[in-house]
Amino acid sequence: MKKILAVISIFVAILFIVSCEKEQVKEPPKVAVDNTAFVGASNDQLAKLPFTGFGYKSSAVPAQSWDKWAQLAAPVIKDIVDKLPDGYALEVRGHTDARGPEDPEGDKPGNLKISKDRSDAVIEALKKQGISSDKIVSKGVGSAEPLAGADPKSADQRRVTFSIVAR
Predict the structure, then answer these.
(1) What pLDDT was estimated at residue 34?
(2) How many domains, the chain?
């Protein structure tokens, strides 16, 4: 019996030693991903893709302008949306010219509502192009972000722009 206990003790000791010597499998260290380069490059591309052509106080997406724009811009936007890292969204930002009030007055809806309606309309048009994601958000800024060098009341101000933003 003593021999059996001695053999079992030696066997357990050997197993203990062998298991301690084996390299433990460790999880690789978590590396923080810096999305700055992706966001910067994407925003540079998106800055070149504003959608223009809205009528005065209108949020209707003009079909002819949209078709031409979508041929070039939609594939770029789809690619960016598909690659968006967690914590970021594509913000579709509607703009207006500086005519009319920002907030509703009487029967005037106000530039903030019109600009939000424009961004919503473009998101719906993107969906029809097959670009849909919960990472696409809408924002209306009214006339608060005019194009530099353009008359604040000109039709050039009636547009939708795109940018990647942190959520």
Answers:
(1) 79
(2) 1
